[in-house]
Amino acid sequence: MGMSVTISVATEQDAEQIFRLQYLCFQSEAARYGNYRIDPLVQSLDSVREEVASDCVFVARLGEEVVGSVRGTVTDDGAASIGKLCVHPRLQGHGIGARLLRAAEAALAEERGAKKFRLSAGHRSEGSLRLYRRLGYEAAGTSRGADGVPMIVLEKQAPASTYATTA
Questions:
Q1: Which comes out higher in pLDDT, residue 162 or 118?
Q2: What does the alpha-carbon distance between residue 28 and residue 161 come to, in Å, rounded to a whole number?
Q3: Helix and strand totals (H; E) in the chain
Q4: How confident is the model over 101-152, as pLDDT tens digits?
Q5: pTM value?
Q6: Rounded mean pLDDT of 68-77?
Q7: Using the 8-state DSSP alphabet, how is residue 149 labeled?
């Protein structure tokens, strides 16, 4: 690849690149469901900026370019809700999504006290579901997105100590 991809906490300056990247990455999901009103495609730039400021947001960088991102926040029940994991289509399949997810899990557990992790994927999103299962997530139920897409909710417990976890 030439340069290596690095994982780091997102900054305010990353919001616009995250916004554009998520719009690009979630086109295939929208096509899969025939629904171009899914949340990542209708989210505003201001909303992305708010998430970067308040949530646990990580980016993958190739040089100065943001090529992946993930967001998480701890909910009232002590679970970390993780979402909008995306990797630029040209870099998918190289482990970047797994690295992003592990970085978010470690930060959510260590810095924000998450006891378990929860995420969802569309019921037809086999690539995402395969990744999540490989990383230890198990189906915990179903839901329907605000856009009407049937979702599979997956969860896993946070490790008792995450000091050995690396990004």
A1: 118
A2: 37
A3: 6, 7
A4: 999 999 999 999 999 999 999 999 999 999 999 999 999 999 998 888 899 9
A5: 0.90
A6: 94
A7: -
Residue type at 125? Answer: S
Length of the chain: 167
Contacts (Cβ under 8 Å, ≥6 apart) of 117:
72, 79, 80, 82, 105, 108, 137, 155, 156, 157, 158
Which one, of 2, 16, 25, lies nearest residue 100 by Cα?
25
Give CA angle at 14 (83, 72), nearest 5°.
20
Three-state SS for 143? strand
Question: How distant, in Å, are the alpha carbons of 20, 24, 51, 65, 107 from that of 81?
Answer: 22, 22, 13, 26, 13
> 72 pairs with which residues across the strands?
56, 82
Place of tokens 């970067």: 52
